[in-house]
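<context>
A single protein, sequence plus fold
<sample>
Here is the protein in question:
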Amino acid sequence: MTQTRRWVLALALIAAFLFVYQWLFPPPKPTRGSAAGDTAVTAQQGATSSGATNAPAAAQPSPQPAQPAVAASRPSSAAPAVPAAKPETLTVTTPTAVVAFSSIGAAPVTVMMRDYHATVRNVSQQAASPLVRLGQPGETLLSFAIVTPHDTIALDSVSFRGTTSTVHGMPTVEFQGDVPRPAGGAVHVTINYAFTGDGYLSQVRGSVTGLAGSPAGYLLISLPTGFPSFEADTADDIRQLAYSYKTLREDASSVAFSHLQPDKAELIPGPLAWVAAKDKYFLVGLLAADTARSHLFAEMHLIGAPKVGGVEKRAAAAVLLPLLPAPSTAGAGAPASGAASFAFEMYTGPQDYRRLRALGHGFENLNPYGGFFHVIFQPFVTLVVVAILGMRDLLHINYGWILIILGVLTRVVLWPLNQRAIRTSLKLQAVQPEIQAVQTKYKSDQARMQQELMRVYKEHGMSPWSPIAGCLPMLLPWPIFGALYFVFRTTIEFRGVPFLWMHDISVKDPYYIMPILMGLTSFFVSWISMRRMPPNPQTKMMSYMMPAVMTFFFWNIAGGLNLYYFVQNLATVPQQWYLSNERAKASGAGPAGATAKSGAQGTKKTPPKLAARSQGMKEQRG
């Protein structure tokens, strides 16, 4: 394989990598209007057998706990029905959030993030409240219904009695109410929210009495239909709206709103350890209270909604949680007649890696990175995130400087591999005349040709795989680049971080200075790598084309990622300059001494006697 072919192979692989990324992860579609337009869109979450309008319709569950049937809700532009009773709002404040609950449905309405401000500009909705808020106007974050073998009892239109208290310094909210049954009679429902930790997590416990007979059934929970955008890059924020879930034995999965169809429901069979509705940086997640199968979510149903302004901003999801028979107060562990309970955890907050990891169940992986390449990229993403957060804790400096340090360290770590690759290239360049001579001499005898080629490679301490092995180290930085690409898409630590002239390193450079600098330094590195190489028009053309392709690809990518790759290029210049001079010295030797001098560039020097014997053999063959 000639030097030109090796360069063409490496550049072709890089170009293919870039274009595959563009195909799998296209740039965000432009949106019309602003985030304030979301307020005009409400959702009707399916009708239950009782005629309620804010919970998905549920069919009769089968006897098996993991196989109940439920039809997911269908959001539409119709306004939700107004409850007969006047709702009351109970608001509690935790160290990190302000949470509002509605007495109608006993469900959270909004969660205001005390530590996160909106980065969107010139939007009246955000101007009124600069803090990020989870919750659609006119809707609750969750809604509940009780599904039994006999009927479905909607809770979203029921007026509950709510009280607040403080336990161990953290707020607790409890709702109690009597809910009429469609078949007659009523049940008594209690729902308790106890906040823990830093205030984003709450323990949700509930009980249902008066079910009359076997309490077998499910709690039907409807997830948020979407979130208003508070991000500067509204298009990308909406593009990453998705529902995520985790089964017991498989990795986390995610279904984007854009992949859901309005007329086609999707069933996610359980048991599920957790489910979540999320946008780019924030989420509402429900986690099983226990890993025991009886506490896990039985199944999940998804359905899309019509586009708003050509973009999928809304969708619907519902999960089923088994109701557990409540123990009898009479003792002996006997179940109480018609009584059942349920429990789960609710997380409403940022996609903070350490917070999510502390919750367990692999909750930190709610963004499965890389699509088809998930197995390759996920470990790199985790490694990069841990490294960046660790450097931040250690150095206490701006994330922009951390990216600069990471870029230099990556190049230093890869220095030996790149050096070995270039030196392998020099050896291949020196041995190429012998390989071509063997191919010409034995072109009609393939078996003999392979035998002679193996002999030539062995004499020079190489193998037929050396050309490919020489190209691979050049591609090693790309998994790290891919990991950083995904990290910048969802890592909330980069959100709103200013550096130099960039007001936010998580979005594109507003002046396009960084992608231009990245492209110029890419060209400079290519020019240095081509110095003193044999003239080749194809190689020269590729050295000009690839920096242009890179600049085009990086043009609208996060400014911080451009910064990282710009620093990578600068750190590569000394190495390329050194290896270019080494290449020049190797090529400066006469034809007769090229092989011996090339061998001297490797880790093992060729002994003079062996070099002389190799030269003598070549003269005999000539």
User: Anything to note?
Assistant: The longest strand covers residues 335-350. The radius of gyration is 32 Å.
